[in-house]
Every structure is written in structure tokens, then in C-alpha cells.
Amino acid sequence: MAKLPVSVDQIIEKYGPHKAYAPKAGFYGSHEPDKLVKTHCCYCGMQCGIQLKVKDNKIAGFEPWMEFPFNEGRLCPKGVERYLQNNHPDRLLDPIARVEGKGFEPVTWDYAMNKTISEIERIQAKYGRDAFAMLSGVSLTNEKSYMIGKFARVALKTANLDYNGRLCMVSAGGGNKKAFGLDRSSNSWADLAHAEVIIVAGANISETFPTLTHYIWQARDNGAKLIVVDPRVIPLARTADLHLPIRPGGDSALFAAMLKILVDNDWLDHDFIESYTSGFQETIDAVKDYDLDWAEEHTGIPKQKILEAATLWGKAKTSFLLHARGIEHHTKGVENVLSCINLVLATGRIGKPYCGYGTITGQGNGQGGREHGHKCDQLPGNRDITNPEHRQYIAEVWGIDEKDMPGKGLTAYEQIEAIHRGEIKGLISICFNPLVSLPNNNFVREALEKLEFYICIDSFLSETARHADIVLAGSLHEEEEGTVTTAEGRVVKINEAITPPGNARRDGQILMELAKRLGVENKFNYATSEDIFNELRVASKGGTADYFGITYQKVVDNMGIFWPCPSLDHPGTPRLWEDRKFKTPDGKAHFNPVRYRPASEVTDKDYPVVLTTGRVVSQYLSGTSTRRIGKLVDQYPEPLLEIHPKLAFQYGIKDRDLITVKTRRGEAEFPAQVVETIRADTVFIPYHWGGVHAANQLTIGNLDPISKIPEFKVCACQLIPTGKVASALTTKNAYQSGV
Ligand code: SF4
């Protein structure tokens, strides 16, 4: 086995500059591929169809997949470059183990497995089962998500399993369940194209879900009015009919004030409200004092614009409301989501053609990954781990005694807090890079350093993996078969194109081997991914996320099936609620009263500027893969501090000046980018980088009380010009920005 380089300098010395990475001349395009494999992009929740070109068991390029109905061949920059991750020289080819004082050394699988099992057993014997926790990711397939939920409860027997969807879609999930009793966007995106009015709230669609933009343009071509709610003039806002430049934290104030305008003008669907909803009166009572002056003060949006937005929405016959992390990443994320849903229900525009509501999932399997049991409070089919009937059903599917199934565990950030308290001593993570993606990441780093044993399954040595005792070389999207569920709720098929390189193994194979060594081989006896999916189908049967009627063949034949799909002869459900049978206990859609409250940290004389965070088009989440792809790095090589000229003038800041941004959690330096496309009281930093360039050194770890999502989208900061101008980025420091 080759020695693994352990420092940035060694990596660069051995493999050459990261930024320059590209396939060797003559590799791409110069040979006929051995095969073309129809599959999906590994990145965002759109899961665009793509065909991978395979040559000699390597991904050599791609071809558009024109027939796939969602994207019809279109891809964004990440999708175009995604094939480059497979042959990247940083790819882990062996399991590796930390050798104190020396970094990492490759080890045999047998050693890595034996060490892992002995540490799990030692920690659980000494501190209890729950002292060994697990964190997983929602870029994984449904099969792996399901298997991880079962692995944690049946093999590790720990309650403490959670996932990185906790940083993503859980506020939407919490709101959807309260309002509808089911957690999915209501329609396929096809309905968007014919909606009369579209509200996009807190969703930078053109950069984070670029191929969805096509549906908005179709709607615009058909005459739709577009309203964009965002503190920045994001690309979509530049052509919108109305841009509402909201102050971060003001979302529920905006939607509450709009609801009051609907009520005052009687722009309501009384039949729908009376026949199919509950909670309307309490909900409108909650907003009765929220007039336009109040709304302007609490949102920072001119009142005329709020009135205009409510009027467009109120008078429309068809409409679609979309939101994403911009309104969900808050300590009142669920309330923000509910305040959106209240607008949809008040006008009765759901469950009909061209009328809908949805959250746009950010991660590749953000939808399916939140349905099949790798959340701390969840069992497959979106069942509740505290519900005795649900527990009994899943215990029977898994062939265990219900009493042996652990209960509800801690959420992702709560696990970090529990490590600090000394309650969690061991951790296994898969496809999760919390050192970049969790808030207040100095606190996260300290936690990782306190663990007695940390094992990580990943394809690259991420920032978090660098703190592991053992890293198991896992698989990429193209190296394992399975399914994912797109942001629309469409279950699609991921096809294996190649086998894992070197001694890397498929993630599923690794989990099965660990389960075997933990003495539960008979519960993880799967010959194929389809075997796992068939067990998932049964486990989800009768749950709100019912996949029972979905088979691999059906997915392939139809290029995707929308759940719920309760029986084999069921065609799937692209549009929910046409039958008006909501999944709440009373069968009605629920209004929920939302009273505005401020963010958990507001500006004051010491920290006078609002800091918000988000993404850029060329990077995906914590950047473990995309920060390794040269062309994507070139597009946006380092995190910049977006600042409005007025605020910049106040501090004497010019483009490329190096600015220290300081919050109560930490401080970091960023080059300024002076732009007119942001509110003058707010600065923005993208969060895809780690180390000294991590925006999440600054963000706050306060959580929504229901969803436990952290408040990434608003905190208070100071701006301190350093007097230095940022030097041009070199290849080496571009690489280091990710270390
Ligand atoms: Fe499509 Fe998202 Fe991949 Fe871009 S990142 S190609 S929008 S799935």
C-alpha cells in the first residue's frame, strides 16, 4: 500500500497543485467509452439525469440524458464537472489509521475493522450504549439511509443517531408535518410552469438549484408574476416583478402581515377553509395587529412592496410558493415555514393544477434521506420512534424485540454538546463534514478532540476526517446502486457505473461488515441494493412516506415514481392533496398561529451588522468534493465578504480589502466584495470552506425548538478593516482554504 501524504505541502508536492487538477491529456473524449450509464448528478436535490461515460472502470466524461423529464439534459456547472471527482488523486484508496505524531498511515481492512469493533465494544461497555453515537449524511441513497437507521438501532444499539439533514430541511419537515401531516412538496415542478404568481422565499435558485430556474422561466414566458424574498438581489431577483429585500430574521413578520392583508381584503377561499382546514380563526387572531407600518419596521421592506406582494398573491387564481434554507435556517425556522403555509391555505391554492407549495431540498437525497429512519426521532416510512405502534411494526420488520429498540436520541448539534459534557465518547460518521457545516465550528473542533475514538467513512479526507482515529475508504455515488428521492418527491434510480478504486469499498459493504462483527450478521444479509430497497418498501408500508408500491423496475420504466405509492398497481402521486384527505389526525390541513419574534441574536452597539451565510453556484455544501475540482475552484476560489457600498463607505472598505469579521463565537478574515446587491445593514459570506476561511466559525449554535436546526442565517457581527489588501489567490492558498 502506498504511503499517504499527511500535510498540504506533501499533498501538493506529490500530486501537484489542487487547482490545476484536470484529467490527463487524451483521457477525456479521445476514446470511445466502454459504456454509457444513465444515472443522476450526485449533488443537489434536483438530481438531474446524466449519462456517465465509462472507460476502463473510470468515469471518463458525461453525456446529457435528454429523455429524463426533470432536466431534459440541462446541467449546472457542478453537474458538468461532477465526473472529475472519481479519478481525483486525493481519493482515499485504503483504510487509514492515525499514528500519533505521524499523521495517517494506510492499514488493512482487517486491522481497521478489528480496531473499530474493539473500540465500540470498549466504550459501550464502560459508558453505556448511547455513549457511542452516529452521524450520517443525506447525499446517501435511500438504501443506505435505511440501512444506517437500522445499523444504529440494531447493531450499535445506540439512540444517538442523527444526520446532516438537520442542517438543511428539518424546519420544512416540522412545518409540513404540523400543517399537512406529511413531509413533501405538494407538486411536481411541472405545475410551476403554469402558475399565475410564484413566490420564492429564501431560495437562491439560480445558484443552488440552477436547473429549476428553467421552470420559473417557463412560468414567466406564460405570464407569471414572480416575487422574490431575499436580503440579496440574487440572480432570480434581478428579473422578478417584485423583490422584497428582507432583513434576515423578518420572514414571519412579512408573511403574517401579508396574511392580514388577505383577510382585510377578503382574498380568501372560504369554502376550502371551512371544509378542509382547522385553526383559521386563531391564526388570523394572531396577525390582527400586524399592519403595514409594523411590517415595514420588522422586515425592513418598504410597506408599499409588501402590499403589492399580498395583492398579487391575493388576486391570483393559481400560485406556487417555494422556499428553502433562507427562511428555514432560523431558531424560528418552523414558524417561518408555517407562516408561508398559512398564506397557501388561506387562498386554498393547493391540491389543484398549477397550485402548490414546496421546500427545495438542498442535498442530493434531502427528501428520501429524511424519510427512512436516520433521524434521531424517526423510523422508516417517516414513522415516529416514540410511537408504540410504529416501534412494534418496525421491530417486526427487523426481527427484533421492540424493547431492544433504542428510543429518541440527540440531534446533530446536541451530539456535539453531549461530547463536550462527556456523555458521548465515541463517534462514527459517514458522509458528513460537521467541522465545516455545523455552526460555531471551533466548538465542534474541540468536541472532536475530546472523543476517545472517532471513525469516519468517507471517500476523501475531509476536514472532519482529519480528526478521526480511523478513516474507512468508502464509495462515491457512481460506485453503488440505489435510489434517491428528488426535491419533487420523485424516486429515481442511481446506477452503479464503476467499482470503487484501489481498496476502497462500497459504503453498504462496510456497514454490513461492521454489523457482522457486532454479531448481527443475520439482520444485514443483503446480496444486492435491491434487497435493501425491498425491505425498505415493507418497512415504509402504511407510513406517511409509503414506498411499498415502488419497485426498481417501475422506477426505471417510468423514469421515476412519486411517493406515496402504497400498492404495486398504484401509479405514484405527483400532485398531493387532490383528494383533500390530509394526513393529520383530523384529516384537515392545519393553520398554525404564528406570532413574530426576533432572531436569537440581534444587532447592538458592539455587534452592529447582520451576518448571513449561504452558497455559491460552483460549490456544494462543505465542498469535500467540489473544492477538489479545479474548474469549480477557479469559478469562486475563496469565500468573499459581500458588502453594500453604503456600509463599505462607513467603514472605509474597498474591494479586496481584508476585513476581520468578528462575532461572539470567533473571528476570521475575508476579502471584501463591494456589491450593490445586498442590504446595507447585512453582510454575506458563503460557507463551503473550512479552516481559517470557515464562515461557520462565526455562526451561532442556537437551535429551533422543534426542528433543532441551527440559526445559520442570522447573527450579529463587527467589521474590522485590517488595513491590508487581500493578495491574489495562489493555487496553494486556494487549496489550504479547504484544509
Ligand atoms: Fe442538477 Fe443540482 Fe447537479 Fe446542478 S448540482 S446538475 S442542478 S443536480
Automatic annotation (TrEMBL):
Gene Ontology molecular function: 4 iron, 4 sulfur cluster binding; metal ion binding; molybdopterin cofactor binding; NADH dehydrogenase activity
Pfam families for this protein: Molybdop_Fe4S4 (PF04879), Molybdopterin (PF00384), Molydop_binding (PF01568)
SUPFAM superfamilies: ADC-like, Formate dehydrogenase/DMSO reductase, domains 1-3
CDD domains: MopB_CT_Fdh-Nap-like
Assigned keywords, A-Z: 4Fe-4S, Iron, Iron-sulfur, Metal-binding
Organism: Olivibacter domesticus (Pseudosphingobacterium domesticum)
GO biological process assignments: respiratory electron transport chain
Domain of life: Bacteria
Residues spanning the signal sequence: none
Name of the protein in question: Assimilatory nitrate reductase catalytic subunit
SMART domains: Molybdop_Fe4S4 (SM00926)
Domain 4Fe-4S Mo/W bis-MGD-type: 34-90
Record's GO cellular component terms: membrane
Region (Disordered): 365-386
InterPro entries per UniProt: Asp_de-COase-like_dom_sf, MoPterin_dinucl-bd_dom, Mopterin_OxRdtase, Mopterin_OxRdtase_4Fe-4S_dom, MopterinOxRdtase_cofactor_BS, Prok_molybdopt-oxidoreductase
